[in-house]
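Incident review: delayed structure delivery

Summary: a single-chain prediction request sat in the queue longer than the usual turnaround. Root cause was a stuck worker, restarted by the on-call engineer. No data loss occurred. The affected request and its eventual output are reproduced below so the record is complete for anyone auditing the incident later.

Affected input:
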Amino acid sequence: MSVDTVIKGGTIVTASEEIDAAVAIDGEQIAAVGRRTELPSAERTIDASGKLVMPGVVDPHVHVRDHISADSYATATAAAALGGVTSIIDFAWQGHHGQDEPWTDEGTLAEGIETKRALASDEAVVDYAVHAGILREDEAVLAEIPDIVADGVTSFKILVASQSGLEFASGVLN
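Output delivered after worker restart:
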């Protein structure tokens, strides 16, 4: 058996301890942790001698290229990587496709997700996922939810206040 990469010589940092060991990575997943002599051969070996080897941070709440962010996926994810963040979860808003687009656009939730995924796939330098952002309560968006979940988006944010902040919706996802 062979793996893609082995990181050897470093000190592995976990939530509970520091270990002098090596890490085998295959298909972007950790396949094994142990002594280098016990791990499979690798196509690539990284010497991390004198360095700490630790998991990256997941930032589960980011806004990229939307109403409150001037960042592109290239700039936002490069900054994330510099800070040790290896995965982000961005908001894909229903009927919102960018900084200058109105929130009242009649686009679907699935279209908002497709737009964000396309931007990220072209520019992101770290792993990414999206939350589905629901801005309008209607039967059409509720009907989209099963297909969106089947497509891998399993978290939703719903805004229930109107622009004036005085009206609230209730029971949207009951």
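Verification: The CA atoms of residues 6 and 24 lie 4 Å apart.
Action items: add queue-age alerting; document worker restart procedure.
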